Amino acid sequence: MTLPLLIEQMLNGLQSGVMLFLIASGLTLVLGIMNFVNLAHGSFYMIGAFTAVSLQLWTGSFVVAAVGACVCAAVAGLAVEYVCARRLYARSHLDQVLVTFGLIYLFNESMRLIFGPQPLASPIPPLLNGSVTLLPGLQYPLFRLTVIGVGLVVAAGMSFVVMRTRLGMLIRAGASDRGMIAVLGVNITWLYSLVFAFGAALAALAGLMSGPLYSVNVGMGENILIMALVVIVVGGIGSLKGAFYAAIVIGLIDTLGRLFLPSAIATIAIYIFMAGVLFVRPQGLFAASAPPQVEARDNGNRVTILWSLSKSRQRVTASVVGLCMIALALVPTLSAWLDDPFLLRLFLRIVIFALMVLSLDLVAGFGGLVSFGHAAFVGTGAYAVAILGWHLDHGEPLALGPIVLAGTHDALVAWPLAIASAAAMALAIGAIALRTSGLYFIMSTLAFAQMLFYLASTPSIYGGEDGLQISQRSTLPFIDLGNRPTLYYLALGLLALCLLLCWRLVNSRFGMIVQACRQNERRVRALGVRTYLYKLLLFVISGVIAGVAGVLLANAELLVSPADLSWTRSGSILIMAIFGGLGTLFGSVVGAGTYLMLEFSLSEWTQHWQIVFGPMLIVFVLLARRGLFGLVLGRGGST
Amino acid sequence: MMESLLRLEAVQASYGQSRILFDVSLTVGPGEMVGLLGRNGMGKTTTVRAVTGQLPTLGGDIIFKGRSIRSTPSHLLGRMGIGLVPEGRRIFPNLTVRENLVAAAANRSGRPDPWTLERVLALFPRLGERLGNWGSQLSGGEQQMLAVGRALMINPDLLILDEATEGLAPIVRDVIWSALRQLKSEGLSILVIDRNLRQMMEVGDRHHIIEKGRTVWSGPSQAFLSEPSLKGRYLSV
């Protein structure tokens, strides 16, 4: 390692850091001031990149492209603020997450429709082509230097505006007390729109500069969004200064890590760093002395508590649930009768996803802990089954420190191990994530799941991005899981068992305490309850159920891949939970069924199904507050 | 009777399902200091919230400077000249004292002698010593002075104070009251909610008593003092 190379890599790190800052600054301002989580912020980055590339190819002018991209994204930002965000400022973070998740579907699919699925390449503007000699032996591309320069100028400019001008004072004041700012005669609505559009334009600025450096493709927004979320969590929500330093540090860690660390660790280095920061300072490094009003919002308005229903409604519920179960039990017969094996395949998937949703409902609906990384636990269970099978097939023992396992397809060995690994993962992630709450919790679970996703994507004997094939279903004595109906009945039985156990659990003293925590944790703590341990236990139990789902998923699909751990999977599970209705347990079956059947029928109809699904999701969240199960049961079930 | 600056006519308001205001009527004339009295939970703060656009009204009317402001958003009321010193002070903790004062400062009516930073500091010299401090670093009394100063900086025609001396040391309370006395002598209209009856009667011109969301008594200080039964009936606990 020579000094010039090191300096070059540090400059690269700085360059990626300032780009991250451009994304994170808009996101953190919107979060800090409006208490609004905008997952679609990455879409503005994508819109900026696509607009810039096409404008540049069309007009030949980088300047026109740059201005056009920023204006275009700002307009998109205004539209998003006006149509969606404005209705959600007072709603829970969960609603905001879901609506902006729907926006991602919409934006991604629109870009794919307009520009096609192929990545676009963007030329470096001729003026900025070439390199500069910084030191003897150190040539550095002029374009990257320009990116660093632009980023630093924007950071300085923003810092000036926010800290020194009246507009900045109003923005900061709005972050601590929106209502009071309005009483003083400031048009807060206008201020919000302005900040939103400005944040979008900044993201587009990063996007257009990313064009010549990386490829411009659909989905580019999500990767950088998650890194920006990590930046915000590390820097402290709402803190511009925190976003700046965290972005630089994370840019450096990411770039230098790839140089110095083994590849498996390098891809997850920033998440390890984030975990460390959260462990020491759950509020982030630069959380203001008087933090903005970013507090946990009870998502109680989404929760339907069954036992608060009248006796007759409870009877209705019980019969609905019973009928559903009977209908589900008849699926294999129906499938055989109709000679339609796909039906059974679809319903097996529904049953397995219902288990995932149930697991999430337990923490999100009852504990108020919105986990945006639940796919991680499912994936852990699935991967454990696949990995144990692989080791048996390849005759290579699996060495876990001092313990050496031969590998197995035996369900009696593999399944408990898989479920235990999912639980252990929930324990590890929960132990750190539960030190935080509210928004930080949502983001840190997301980031940890992403860490596992990258770990699974790293090339290894387990297939990396291609995933890992499983040669056969697990074996059980007396039961042949090779037979799909048998696997289906086993899955259905496990679902029924888990539903029953969860029902008992949430009605127990333990369940009462975690539900009380959702409503007011401080009060429960004042009663002498160590709430952290209760929430952690709830999280681990949820991990166990997710592990069961993972085991079944691996057996059903005979393939595990990083997609099973992806954040879009976590998002889907969350959407299913909302579809069904949080805090209903049984809604999980309804939610998973509705989602998967909808996905199936829409994708039969058009390949761009997400462009329909996204807006549907948005409308659903904006209008139906208590999910389908809640709708069926009608009013009166709310806490 | 002279044309009033602010007039509430049978105002009704509620929080969700629970009705708080049933029939609140009151007036504040130009240059008048009017007190709003009543026990806890009778609707005094709710009345203030309705007047400042923080709570929609269900019925009745609110007239300010001859215009109905029933459905006017908060920020326009601020621009029309209603300054609020809210319950709990609500200063901006993450702004310095100076920033708290200048953030929203404005002289929209083009007043010849507008409130400026210097004038507020002259009224509350204590704030001058704390200009660079964060709002969160101030004592309760200092925060209260800042809240009054901040409301003055938008050059209001009507100043509304909601429990402005609540929980303050007597010596600080006197500072606030002498400021109010001065503001009144300069011709500012003031609507004040306060528990300090002695000062209220001494400085205030007229008063309204609210009981269970209804105005049950209105009259000048003299009339209140000459009817000792009022205190027992509506104010004592």
UniProtKB/TrEMBL annotation, chain A:
Keywords, comma-separated and alphabetical: Amino-acid transport, Cell membrane, Membrane, Transmembrane, Transmembrane helix, Transport
GO biological process, one term: amino acid transport
GO CC field: plasma membrane
Keyword Acyltransferase: no
Protein location: Cell membrane
Membrane topology: Multi-pass membrane protein
GO molecular function, a single term: branched-chain amino acid transmembrane transporter activity
Keyword NADP: no
The organism's place on the tree of life at top rank: Bacteria
Transmembrane segments: 18-37, 57-85, 97-115, 142-163, 224-253, 259-280, 316-337, 343-363, 412-432, 439-456, 487-506, 532-553, 573-598, 610-633
Assigned protein family: Belongs to the binding-protein-dependent transport system permease family. LivHM subfamily.
UniProt xrefs under PANTHER family: ABC TRANSPORTER ATP-BINDING PROTEIN (PTHR11795:SF442), BRANCHED-CHAIN AMINO ACID TRANSPORT SYSTEM PERMEASE PROTEIN LIVH (PTHR11795)
Record-given protein name: Branched-chain amino acid transport system permease protein
Originating organism: Bosea lathyri
Biological classification of the source: Bacteria, Pseudomonadati, Pseudomonadota, Alphaproteobacteria, Hyphomicrobiales
TrEMBL record, chain B:
One of the protein's GO biological processes: L-amino acid transport
Coiled-coil annotated spans: none
Key words, A-Z: Amino-acid transport, ATP-binding, Nucleotide-binding, Transport
Gene Ontology MF annotations: ATP binding; ATP hydrolysis activity; branched-chain amino acid transmembrane transporter activity
InterPro entries linked to this entry: AAA+_ATPase, ABC_transporter-like_ATP-bd, ABC_transporter-like_CS, BCAA_Transport_ATP-bd_LivF, P-loop_NTPase
Residue stretches making up the ABC transporter domain: 6-237
One Pfam family hit: ABC_tran
PANTHER family for this protein: ABC TRANSPORTER ATP-BINDING PROTEIN (PTHR43820:SF2), HIGH-AFFINITY BRANCHED-CHAIN AMINO ACID TRANSPORT ATP-BINDING PROTEIN LIVF (PTHR43820)
Similarity comment: family membership: Belongs to the ABC transporter superfamily.
Protein name: Amino acid/amide ABC transporter ATP-binding protein 2, HAAT family
